[in-house]
Write a structure and sequence with these properties.
alpha+beta; Immunoglobulin-like; 4-stranded mixed beta sheet; 4 helices; 16 strands; 21% helix; globular
Length: 279
């Protein structure tokens, strides 16, 4: 049985801790967990509490909403009594407010079990675009990522990642050894919807022939339709500048007219004074 416990269970919080104010409740980070160690069912502990039970390879769990802070992640054999004898970890993860993370149990390039914490980019995505991230978490040398048979990422090594902005749509992707085009994974069709961040994990082992892809899709980053840049820039700034210049010109013209009228009145007054004296 595989189960995902709530954030309260993860932290061992009592019922009183759940009655937090809305402002405090909003101050959280999001954490997903990917199991990328082939042929090994595990349990996952967070801060000593069982969080994922009988977690199967290739499975993505979460996201859990957790208060920002430091968490110890430990991966044990299935049905372990506790986290005292982990097969991976414990690994300390520092989570910050408003951030989105994925913790990955995987193999390093030499084939030893390890873990990595990735920060997921949740920034706004341009209209008509999608983001594609590839993470190399497999026991394999450097790889190239191909789209439609052409390399779009080259020389990616474990445990690195690379992100590209791409046009939204469906793309046929595959993974090949660096400098080659013969796929060791795929090809597989990826549906890259507009405004989504699609994270592809190459996991498994080249030596044992079980390399696979896992895909994590993050949604809700599309740019608002008809969005106009804020501040006084572009046409708005140009219009304001034009209005300001017009105002200054009009003010200057009115000032000159006022000076002319005043001068004319002064001349008329002097003429009238001279005429009165002659009488």
């Amino acid at each position: 049985m595989r189960k995902t416990l709530s954030a309260a269970a993860v932290l061992g919080l009592g019922a009183g801790a759940l009655s937090m104010t809305p402002a405090f409740a909003a101050e959280h980070a999001e954490l997903s967990v990917l199991h990328g160690v082939p042929d090994t069912v595990v349990d996952v502990y967070v801060n000593g509490e069982l969080t994922l039970d009988d977690f199967a390879p290739g499975t993505l769990a979460g996201p859990l909403e957790l208060p920002a802070g430091s968490y110890d992640l430990a991966i044990t054999a299935p049905d372990a009594a506790d986290a005292s004898a982990p097969i991976i970890g414990p690994v300390t993860a520092q989570l910050e407010t408003g951030m989105n993370y994925t913790a990955v149990a995987h193999l390093d390039a030499a084939g030893s079990p390890t873990a990595a914490l990735f920060t997921n980019d949740m920034s706004e995505i341009e209209a008509g675009k999608s983001h594609l991230t590839v993470r190399h978490v497999a026991a394999a040398p450097a790889v190239d990522v191909l789209a439609g048979g052409q390399p779009i990422i080259q020389g990616l090594e474990n445990p690195n990642e690379e992100t590209l902005p791409v046009d939204a749509g469906t793309v046929s992707a595959s993974v090949a050894a660096a400098g080659t085009t013969d796929p060791v994974i795929g090809p597989a069709d990826l549906n890259l919807a507009e405004g989504t961040h699609n994270i592809v994990y190459a996991w498994g082992s080249l030596e044992t022939g079980n390399l696979q892809l896992a895909v994590q899709t993050l949604e809700g980053m599309e740019q608002a339709p008809g969005a106009v840049p804020g501040g006084q820039s572009g046409l708005a700034a140009q219009e304001q500048s034009t209005l300001l210049s017009t105002g200054l010109a009009a003010g200057g013209a009115l000032g000159l007219i006022g000076v002319a009228i005043a001068a004319q009145r002064t001349i008329s007054s002097r003429r009238q004074f001279a005429q009165d004296r002659q009488r």
